[in-house]
Design the sequence.
């Protein structure tokens, strides 16, 4: 994609009385890049929503443009940023997971956004307008305290450097803010209420209840695959959290997943796979929503565990999709799994569910920008639009992701959207929008009940995650026994 450049001979920065002013004199002997490069994993439908934020930014800040590039999924964004860092052409802003940023920290380009977060400084820049050189003043660089107070505390805390295993060569302060949440997702269980009614059962709340439901479904509809799980890695990591076996650690020996608890769980799900109860994305060859929307009578499924961010794909054509939290694991007082809610030693149900969805990281110095400070400040203005209440409402309604601001849920219009009905109880949303609204309600509940967790972020944590996808796949297909699959994964992560 063609890069847009504005040339400049001289950049002079003045900081006077809390006002930052940048004057750029242009005569073609140097380059000042007035294009903000933004990488995301958004598909076309989400990118269309983001277009509104891009338009708002470009209209508010004349002389600046946004170039929004979608290299592919999250892994493709990671690889693109890593490649660009090597060439010094890194973007100004990028979608990220924490384990991605762990790999960027040593580059020295990750911006500590604390310096802009609540900045009351004003900022003036110059640009070439229709009437020649003009100036534009931004009254306040940062958010207001009211804005920051509205950010979901759990999501916000994920972005602090203190949450990371920090390499020795990183010079950022220990309290640095290296990411801000954009929107968040988790996994939920989509289910076919008509099928459950035919089976005469309620919605499963534990894994034991879910496997019992799968057995009943398989007996009634022999050609169905009752459960589809969209992410093998998420399944392993979530069950490690629920069942109390170790996965990874931010310190010491990072890779802890080769343990008896993991082997026991893998043996159990291999048995369920052999009974025809389950499939996964890699085995099915695509998101298992494609199986779920068929229904059990058409060789489909009755449950699908997938991301809230993909909710619109779960709308069934012959039934009305419903949404519930993923099942939990009954555990004893020490957090170890027990057989059921009535088993000896049962203490409570561990309902932990993974917190995902994109955060955003700001990188500096890429694309030959001759004034990184100006570029950072203007990139932060785009962040302010993306994290504004208005845009978070728009993106949440169009995606099923959980907004990162709590005040979104207090908005009257958003409440109407979540209800999916008008004041007379009449459904006002078409099927895809209705399933998104139902998913958003469940996501809000999970947040309020503090069920979310995040796995440790360190250089190599993304490798561990990728290996868990392979482990589950190998074991289900019978290509490796659990002990061999885990040992090979440990070796692939650099273990001995």
Sequence:
């Amino acid at each position: 994609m063609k890069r847009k450049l504005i040339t400049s001979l001289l950049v002079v920065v003045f900081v006077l009385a809390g006002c930052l002013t940048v004057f750029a004199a242009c005569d073609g002997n140097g380059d000042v890049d007035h294009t903000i490069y933004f990488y995301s994993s958004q598909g076309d439908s989400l990118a269309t929503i983001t277009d509104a934020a891009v338009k708002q930014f470009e209209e508010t800040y004349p002389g600046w443009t946004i170039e929004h590039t979608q290299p592919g999924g999250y892994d493709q964004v990671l690889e693109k940023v890593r490649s660009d860092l090597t060439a010094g052409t890194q973007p100004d802003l990028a979608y990220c997971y924490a384990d991605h940023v762990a790999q960027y920290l040593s580059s020295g380009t990750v911006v500590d956004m604390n310096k802009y977060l609540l900045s009351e400084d004003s900022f003036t820049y110059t640009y070439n307008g229709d009437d020649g050189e003009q100036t534009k003043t931004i009254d306040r660089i940062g958010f207001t305290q009211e804005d920051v107070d509205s950010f979901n505390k759990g999501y916000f805390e994920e972005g602090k450097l203190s949450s990371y295993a920090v390499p020795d060569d990183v010079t950022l302060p220990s309290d640095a803010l290296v990411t801000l949440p954009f929107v968040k997702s988790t996994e939920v269980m989509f289910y076919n209420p008509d099928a459950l009614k035919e089976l005469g059962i309620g919605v499963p709340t534990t894994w034991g209840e879910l496997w019992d439901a799968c057995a009943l479904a398989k007996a009634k509809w022999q050609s169905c695959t009752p459960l589809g799980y969209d992410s093998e890695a998420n399944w392993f990591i979530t069950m490690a959290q629920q069942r109390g076996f170790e996965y990874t650690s931010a310190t010491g020996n990072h890779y802890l997943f080769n343990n008896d608890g993991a082997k026991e769980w893998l043996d159990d799900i291999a048995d369920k796979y052999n009974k025809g109860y389950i499939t996964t994305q890699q085995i099915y060859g695509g998101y298992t929503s494609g199986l779920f929307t068929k229904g059990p009578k058409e060789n489909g499924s009755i449950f699908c565990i997938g991301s809230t961010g993909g909710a619109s794909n779960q709308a069934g054509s012959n039934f009305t999709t419903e949404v519930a939290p993923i099942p939990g694991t009954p555990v004893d007082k020490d957090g170890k799994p027990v057989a059921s809610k009535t088993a000896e030693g049962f203490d409570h149900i561990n309902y932990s569910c993974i917190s995902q969805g994109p955060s955003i990281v700001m990188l500096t110095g890429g694309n030959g920008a001759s004034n990184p400070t100006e570029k950072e400040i203007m990139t932060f203005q785009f962040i302010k639009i993306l994290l504004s209440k208005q845009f978070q409402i728009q993106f949440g309604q169009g995606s099923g992701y959980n907004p990162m601001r709590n005040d979104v849920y207090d908005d009257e219009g958003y409440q109407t959207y979540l209800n999916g009905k008008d004041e007379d109880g009449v459904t006002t949303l078409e099927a895809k929008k209705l399933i998104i609204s139902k998913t958003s309600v469940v996501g809000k509940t999970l947040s309020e009940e503090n069920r979310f967790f995040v796995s440790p972020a360190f250089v190599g944590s993304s490798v561990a995650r990728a290996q868990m996808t392979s482990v589950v796949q190998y074991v289900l297909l019978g290509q490796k026994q659990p002990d061999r699959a885990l040992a090979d994964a440990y070796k692939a992560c650099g273990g001995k």
